[in-house]
Specification:
The chain has 121 residues and is an all-alpha fold. The chain has a single domain, classed as Orthogonal Bundle (c-terminal domain of poly(a) binding protein), CATH 1.10.1900.20. Helix content is 75%, strand content 0%. The protein has helices spanning 7-20, 32-70, 76-85, 92-101, 103-120. Helix 2 (32-70) crosses helix 4 and helix 4 (92-101) crosses helix 5. It is rod-shaped and about 90 Å long. The N and C termini lie far apart (88 Å).
Length: 121
Amino acid sequence: MARVKGGVTTRKRRKKVLKQAKGYFGSKHTLFRTAKEQVIKSLAYAYRDRKKRKCEFRSLWITRINGAAREYDMSYSQFINGLHKANVDINRKMLSEMAIHQPVEFKKLVDLSKSALEKKD
């Protein structure tokens, strides 16, 4: 039986890793072993941060809503509580966009929230 040499497969695998490591600093984009370690790390960071991005955006939206609500003498928690009591279901992303681009409609929501809080108390 003839001997099988794995040069083609090895080269293909190494070129794939080095292509993924393109643009990395120092030897991490030229040496296979360090490139492989960094690619594994980078893929792990990318996976983790895809999940983390959702948390960061929600935090940003809440900050924007809080700032907009405080212009009308309400805190974020009071505003959201009032909306829940008024049975208004708008997600935080849309509330944030309304606060930025449609301040008149956002003011109406704040008034609705205030009236719902006064009714229930």
